[in-house]
Write a structure and sequence with these properties.
By secondary structure, this protein is α+β, with helices and mostly antiparallel strands. It has three helices and four strands, in the order βββαααβ.
Amino acid sequence: MQFLYNGFTQDGNNRSYSFQAVEERQPAISYTILVDLSLFARHHVTLQNGPMFCLHLLQTASNCGAGITDQIRNYCAVDADFASLL
């Protein structure tokens, strides 16, 4: 499965990153990762690294199986998600 980054929207202190998952001969599936911008500051992650951080979350979930990937179709990032970056 490949994830294609579609961009982001921002509402106040929350940024929503949008992705499409594509797989051969399957319809594309939309994913949205919501991140409170204060998490980036707290974990010393630049906003420019936001898309890569979200892509990492999606790829990790995908490696765990379809059930986990389905659970994060509309996901709100938490402090623990940044642990792999530290």
